[in-house]
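Posted in: Structural Biology > Protein-Ligand Complexes

Title: Requesting predicted complex, uridine-5'-diphosphate in pocket

I'd be grateful if someone could produce the 3D structure tokens for the following input. Sequence and ligand are given below.
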Amino acid sequence: MQDNPAPTLSVIIPCYNEGENVPLLFGRLLPVLAGLDVSFEVICVNDGSRDDTLDRLLEVQTGEPRLRVIDLSRNFGKERALSAGLLHSRGQAVVPMDADLQHPPEAIADMLAKWREGWDVVFARRDARVGQGVSERLFAKGFYWVFDHLSDVKLPREVGDFRLMDRKVVDTVNRMPERSRFMKGIFAWVGYRHAEIVYRQGERAAGTTKFNSLKLLRFAFDGLTSFSNFPLRVWGGIGAAISSLAFLYIVIRIIRTIFWGVDVPGYESILVSVLFLGGMQLLTLGIIGDYVGRVFDEVKGRPLFIIRKLYEPGGE
Ligand code: UDP
Ligand code: MG
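-- Reply #1 --
Done. Output follows.
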């Protein structure tokens, strides 16, 4: 439906209730892109915003034919919005970034320079986290530690989704079929040769963060279980250890009973072991349940996202 030749650069921006940020974002992004001397497209994925994000994007589009807007049918979450953008991007180099200007568009120039040197992926590493409290930082640290130890892929530190990817990397990511889209993990899993630039993360331009602690916790757990089977396997080992201990205890009790007779006090030890084993079993069931649920989700094979409408410039 579009006959423009494929641009060199695609910038992908997932937007969820970012109405206030849209004018600020384009006010800064477009001059930067214009100064880059490459052909570009900007793809904004409206992730079911309940404010005027879509209207404002379409407003920008009337004056900027290189803006393409993907309007999802509801809120699918940032990871899937990003997947939608990646799937529709056509650029030789693709840069996902946030709509709140925490990712400075100016850094794209440095990334492009590295890309031209022949790197497939250019990470943008933030030199400090902005807008996060101590507990969030600790949580992030803990998450990375656990993730590194449990999964086969290593996540680069302080690198978010803001990065540049060559077309072949994006094509690989687009071929990954899983529904549970932990993009940081997926990006790391596909590999390729990477270089790095450092940027200073800004404050959110307007509005508030779209992630609360519960959403973050869910996100972290999702990431962990999609990239590691360890939580599933560890219970086998723990179960075996506890069963051996229990067996030993049984033998001791039998010998005691044979030589010293029945021992009435001691029912509490039975209670303790029953409760303990029951608890362990419930925990194990819960973990197995989580993986079974994931298999269920994959087997259903539902689409990752649904596009309500694709707003291409010039086409109605
Ligand atoms: N976002 C999205 N869908 C969501 C939540 C967030 O598309 O369900 C977008 C949001 O509009 C922003 C980016 O993801 O462009 C990052 O969100 P935010 O700035 O709230 O995250 P933080 O910087 O606090 O981690
Ligand atoms: Mg942000």
